[in-house]
Amino acid sequence: MHGTEIPIKNISCSGFCSRCGTRHSLEPGDALLHCRALMEKMDREGRADFELPQDKATPDFSTDYLFGKARGQMFGVMTYLDNSGTLKTAKAFSGQYNSHWEIPGWVPPIISPQEFYSLTERTEKEIKRIGMEMENHAHGSPAHTELSSRRKKLSQDLMRRIHAIYKVHNFRGETRPMPEIIYESKGIPTGTGDCCAPKLLNFAARNGYTPLNIAEFYYGRENKSATRSHKQFYPSCTDKCGLILGYMLCGL
Q1: What is the CA radius of gyration of the chain?
Q2: CB 231 within 8 A of CB 3
Q3: Backbone angles phi and psi of 104, in degrees to 5
Q4: For the whole model, what pTM was predicted?
Q5: String of b and e for 113-149 (b: at least 16 CB within 10 Å)?
Q6: Cα 140 from chain centre
Q7: Over its length of 252 residues, how does the chain's per-residue pLDDT go in tens digits?
Q8: Largest Cα–Cα distance in the chain?
Q9: Where would I find the H helices in 54-179?
């Protein structure tokens, strides 16, 4: 084991399933070996679109991005059996990579990027416009307060609509919008559904594949809270992924 790695013991991907009243989980298993190979590939190639020829590489996908102001992010690998029973692997990155939802060779996000941009473009412009208008009024003034309230409502409405376009699959053959599967009533944290494990499981469930193991690691500059370090392994998060992974693993 590399000296920079934190060992994952038994579980790397888990969540409570309200339907079953139990916690479903997957172990890291052989996915750890494939993660190490992926790290080495990223070290060697210096880019995330390494499945494309060098002459078709996009500067946006350089790994330099992960060591700059944006800092690093999580990456994951899943081993699975395809429909013919052949052992294969799939890889994912958390969230967006340098403002891109998709990179050739990586599993797609749960949402449709086109639907996301269509939904958010107009509203985000209006939110930014209101923010600029607020700068023309003194903080705490009636006009500033009214604009702030309007901007907050627009943001909240937009997040509700965004969450609704996350169509989440599980291994019972079910597909439900994300708000319907959150078993807690605190609301849905921003970024829920965008981490590696949900992307990988959704990819498998949509295609009828059988996941075997999942492992995730951090690659890049240490995050601001110093809770994630370069090339170290971490289990799936509980505050975001944990809200939907139980549903997603159900029926496996």
Answers
A1: 20
A2: no
A3: -55, 130
A4: 0.91
A5: eeeeeebeeeeeeebeebeeebeeeeeeeeebeebbe
A6: 37
A7: 333 444 455 778 999 888 888 999 999 999 999 999 999 999 999 999 999 999 999 999 999 999 998 899 999 999 999 999 999 999 999 999 999 999 999 999 999 999 999 999 999 999 999 999 999 999 999 999 999 999 999 999 999 999 999 999 999 999 999 999 886 667 889 899 999 999 999 999 999 999 999 999 999 999 999 899 999 999 998 889 889 999 999 999
A8: 66
A9: 113-134, 142-164
The single-letter code of the amino acid at 114 is Q
Cβ(230)–Cβ(223) below 8 Å: no
Joined together, the tokens standing for residue 33 give 């070996």
Sign of the Cα pseudo-torsion (227, 229, 232, 236, in order): positive
Q: What secondary structure letter does DSSP report for 17?
A: E
230-to-22, 71, 117, 219 alpha-carbon distances in Å = 33, 10, 31, 5
Please give the structure tokens belonging to residue 95: 């969230």
